[in-house]
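2024-03-11 09:14:02 INFO worker-7 job=invfold-0412 stage=load source=structure_tokens
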């Protein structure tokens, strides 16, 4: 079952999941592409050990987020801090200018959160339940709910400023 073709199919079906994590945890298009490749590589390395005890998306999010956090830690050790690529912030599928601006503002605020907060809000915006988020992050569902409420309040207060 764990063949190359199956893996490629899984990556193609879940490509948006990987791109969202890569985009959220990087500040330039080049870093986003590097992180995307690193996540795919880590998924490939871990694929033979996947036992389907958790949902496929849970397993992929866990690896993607852990890889992204490791990538951030590596970048911090290097001391490279690149400015946010404005082109990435402006990319949306919507043609409605108001929605585009709102998405840009929200995305900008999410990028300012710490690594754990980014992960939780990303999973929430993906429609994951508290239990699924807890499974991916290692927190309890109650703790996820508490953290999520604080994150929402933090973002709301930043937007009001």
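2024-03-11 09:14:09 INFO worker-7 stage=emit residues=161
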């Amino acid at each position: 079952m764990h063949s190359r073709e199956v893996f490629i199919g899984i990556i193609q079906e879940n490509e948006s999941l990987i791109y969202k994590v890569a985009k959220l945890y990087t500040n330039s298009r080049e870093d986003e592409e590097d992180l995307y490749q690193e996540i795919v590589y880590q998924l490939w390395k871990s694929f033979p050990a996947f036992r389907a005890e958790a949902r496929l998306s849970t397993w992929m999010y866990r690896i993607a987020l852990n890889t992204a956090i490791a990538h951030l830690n590596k970048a911090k050790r290097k001391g490279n801090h690149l400015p946010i690529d404005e082109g990435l912030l402006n990319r949306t599928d919507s043609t409605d200018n108001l929605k585009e601006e709102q998405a840009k503002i929200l995305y900008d605020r999410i990028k300012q959160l710490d690594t754990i907060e980014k992960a939780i809000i990303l999973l929430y915006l993906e429609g994951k339940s508290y239990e699924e988020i807890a499974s991916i992050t290692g927190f309890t569902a109650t703790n996820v709910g508490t953290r999520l409420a604080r994150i929402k309040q933090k973002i709301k207060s930043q937007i009001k400023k």
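2024-03-11 09:14:09 INFO worker-7 stage=report msg="DSSP finds nine helices and no strands in the chain."
2024-03-11 09:14:10 INFO worker-7 job finished
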